[in-house]
Write a structure and sequence with these properties.
By secondary structure, the chain is α+β, with helices and mostly antiparallel strands. The chain folds into three domains: about 45-140, no CATH class; about 155-295, Copper type II, ascorbate-dependent monooxygenase, N-terminal domain (Jelly Rolls); about 300-360, no CATH class. It is about 15% helix and about 20% strand. It is built from six helices and 14 strands. The strands form four sheets. The chain has a five-stranded mixed sheet, with no helix packed on it. The protein has a five-stranded antiparallel sheet with strand order 7-4-10-6-8. Helix 2 crosses helix 5 (about 115-125) and helix 4 (about 85-95) packs antiparallel against helix 5 (about 115-125). The radius of gyration is 26 Å and the shape is globular.
């Protein structure tokens, strides 16, 4: 049986309804009288204050506001009006709101629903009216700095200035936690110091302090690192890429941070040919709630392959059999660096056929 995506199914259902309910002008060779219908009342054009801002609150405002990664704000009508043609273009192309997975059902899906897309495009096509300010909903409340409020522990690496002419710079910074006892992490928030050059961030827990020797072995802040932090026994404590929002773990779930651990902060810098510095901050939120589940990051990595010359579609795979009984899959984080074009993850549960849980085609 062919598989249709949700948009196609709705289209087919609508087509059937139209065909079944359309008035027929001819039946059994005789004409029927066709009654004149009253013209439909013209639909009122959407306005920013009534319809548009409510869609933007759901899909845009977490990034398009002062201090966040998006290049301009969309909080108010005055903020939004100069960008209506850009908005029209990126909606029609599907570039915005950004959402890359072709397969997978995820929390906080940013894609516009068909009705929302239609409303925004109609608003632009009919003149982008502000409407009545009395129709505005209450504005969303955002903390201006830490999204989750003041962290229990803040880590900051030494200021670093990458070579402005370098194409990419992968740098790790060994930072002490100075914790006297083990702590349970319920959330992590990463605040890039300079979003113009910070491409992504990954946090590696270093319980033995091995990253300090690597940091001290190179001049200047931090040490060169690619792929990982270059240390054994590292545990991943989360990461950041543009658009990522900090998540609080479910009740009863946490990550253990050992006493006296260091954190190796891996940052991928992408310099913009101007002299730019960065001091990225890490906020850790602890919980004293008794946790019954430990969150672990399990990397799926294949580093033992060679792409033949001229090959344009070379598949690389890896996998593992889960050794932990009763484990629950909480998230999946596809990530590529250089030549990758497509990435996906498949899972086979006991007694069930294999299924895709995520796929990104570009």
């Amino acid at each position: 049986m062919p598989h249709y995506n949700g948009r196609m199914v709705r289209f087919l259902a609508l087509a059937c309804i139209i065909l079944l309910t359309a008035p027929t002008a001819w039946s059994q060779g005789r004409s029927r009288p066709i009654r004149a219908r009253r013209p439909a009342e013209p639909q009122q054009a959407p306005t920013f204050s009534k319809e548009v801002v409510r869609i933007m609150q759901q899909k845009c405002h977490t990034c398009h506001r002062p201090g966040e990664v998006a290049p301009f704000s969309l909080l108010t009508y005055q903020d939004t009006l100069p960008h209506v043609r850009d908005i029209e273009q990126v909606i029609e192309s599907g570039e915005m709101p950004p959402w890359r997975p072709e397969v997978g059902d995820f929390r906080d899906d940013r894609r516009l629903e068909p009705g929302q897309q239609e409303t925004l495009l109609k608003w632009i096509a009919t003149g982008s009216s502000e409407g009545n300010p009395d129709d505005l909903p209450p504005p969303l409340q955002f903390n201006l700095d830490w999204t989750l409020g003041q962290p229990d522990l803040v880590l900051i690496h030494d200021e670093y200035t990458p070579d402005p002419e370098a194409p990419d710079d992968y740098r790790c910074f060994s930072v002490p936690t100075n914790l006297l006892a083990d702590n349970k992490i319920r959330a992590v928030e990463i605040r890039p110091g300079n979003s113009r050059i910070v491409h992504h961030v990954i946090l590696y827990g270093d319980p033995t302090g091995a990253s300090l020797a690597l940091d001290n072995a190179e001049e200047g802040p931090g040490y060169s690192c690619y792929g990982d932090a270059g240390i054994d026994l590292a545990q991943i404590y989360g990461g950041w890429a543009p658009g990522n929002r900090p998540q609080v773990l479910p009740a009863g779930t946490a990550q253990t941070l050992r006493a006296a651990s260091r954190i190796s902060i891996q940052i991928h810098y992408h310099p913009d040919r101007t002299l730019q510095s960065d001091e990225t901050r890490i906020g850790l939120y602890f919980t004293e709630e008794e946790s019954t589940q430990e969150l672990l990051y399990f990397p799926l990595v294949n580093q033992n392959f060679s792409i033949p010359p001229g090959e344009t579609n070379f598949e690389v795979t890896t996998g593992f059999t889960n050794p932990f009984p009763g484990v629950k899959l909480y998230a999946v984080l596809p990530h590529m660096h250089l030549l990758g074009r497509q990435i996906g993850v498949e899972i086979t549960l006991p007694g069930e056929p294999m299924r895709e849980i995520v796929r990104i085609d570009d």
